[in-house]
Design goal:
Keywords: ATP-binding, Cell membrane, Membrane, Nucleotide-binding, Transport. This protein is α/β, with parallel strands linked by helices. The protein has helices at residues 67-75, 114-124, 129-142, 158-171, 188-205, 216-222, 253-267; strands at 2-4, 11-13, 19-21, 27-38, 41-52, 56-60, 82-87, 90-91, 99-102, 176-180, 208-213, 225-230, 235-241. 31% of the residues lie in helices and 26% in strands. Bound molecules: adenosine-5'-diphosphate and magnesium ion.
């Protein structure tokens, strides 16, 4: 396990004591000095964070630490009071198709079938006919809803609705998928199934994925990197590289060890206390 400070380039020390830059993948999203206020309330204070192309990054922290504010700032839904967000080197000006969002509450149109929900974004782009049908069939298949294409959201279970929401977001072909506690409203068994399915989809689609959760085990099971956040005001304290090999097991020693280590970071309240560890810089 390695840790880096938000936004910084990782470096490795060579035998001769010289510092040599590691190869860092290209940056998909760069957050620089992000500050968000709601009236007098400081929800995010000076957040710096880089998300790499194809990265599965979890924003992990307790309720109220600014996870949704940060995700919404990346989506372009929240205007920062200071700082900025870049996507592929360009500062964002608002929401755009390159960033797709999946919310905790299934944001499907209740008056449209699964198929029509999935087709909604591509149809707005002017796609029609056989091509539109092809897109909805492909994404229905990808999320395992091929038998439910003609159902309405109220005819689906919670898990199926969230699969449909993922398919709808992917059908827009975003470069970056933003997910705000997407499995938070699901029962534990369905949640685990969808976690595994999302990983499979991510391996096929290779999108950059930014996933909000307050579950340590979810973050450790899913993410390449975990941005650890704390409240009052919302900050990213550390970014931990999760090097546990995939496919992962929730019952492996290394899974438990990483969960325990992160839990201790939260229990100590000030994550900087772990800075004595050679693996963690504060
Ligand atoms: N629209 C808003 N108006 C006022 N305060 C808000 C608003 N949205 C969020 N907040 C506050 O900002 C802080 C961070 O909220 P949020 O980003 O939703 O955190 P999280 O997703 O980690 O729970 C919280 O204290 C929350 O009460
Ligand atoms: Mg939230």
């Amino acid at each position: 396990m390695q840790a880096e400070t938000g936004g910084g380039q990782m470096q490795a020390e060579t035998g001769g004591g010289q510092m040599q830059a590691e190869t860092v993948p290209s940056t998909a999203v760069r957050i620089v000095g992000a500050e968000a206020r709601y009236g007098k309330h400081l929800a995010l204070a000076k957040v710096d964070l880089d998300v790499y192309e194809g990265d599965f990054l979890c924003l992990l922290g307790p309720s109220g630490c600014g996870k949704t504010s940060l995700l919404n700032a990346i989506a372009g839904f929240v205007q920062l009071t200071s700082g900025y967000v870049e996507v592929k080197g360009e500062e964002i000006a608002g929401p755009a198709r390159d960033r797709g969002m999946v919310f905790q509450e299934y944001a499907l149109f209740p008056w449209l079938t699964v198929e029509k929900n999935i087709q909604y974004g591509p149809r707005l782009k002017g796609i029609c006919g056989a091509q539109l049908k092809e897109i909805s069939s492909r994404y229905c298949r990808l999320v395992g809803l091929e038998g439910s294409a003609n159902k309405y959201p109220n005819q689906l279970s919670g898990g199926m609705r969230q699969r449909a929401a993922i398919a709808r977001a992917l059908a827009n072909q975003p470069d970056i998928l933003l997910m705000d506690e997407p499995f938070g409203a699901l029962d534990a068994m369905t949640r685990q199934t969808l976690q595994e399915e999302l990983l499979k989809i991510w391996e096929i689609e290779r999108k950059t994925l930014i996933f909000v959760t307050h579950s340590i085990t979810e973050a450790v099971f899913m993410a390449d990197r975990i941005a650890i956040m704390s409240p009052h005001p919302g900050r990213v304290n550390h970014v931990i590289s999760n090097t546990i090999k995939r496919p992962r097991s929730r019952t492996s020693e290394e899974h438990f060890a990483m969960c325990r280590m992160i839990e201790m970071m939260f229990q100590k309240g000030a994550i900087g206390q772990l800075s004595t560890s050679p693996e963690v810089k504060s």
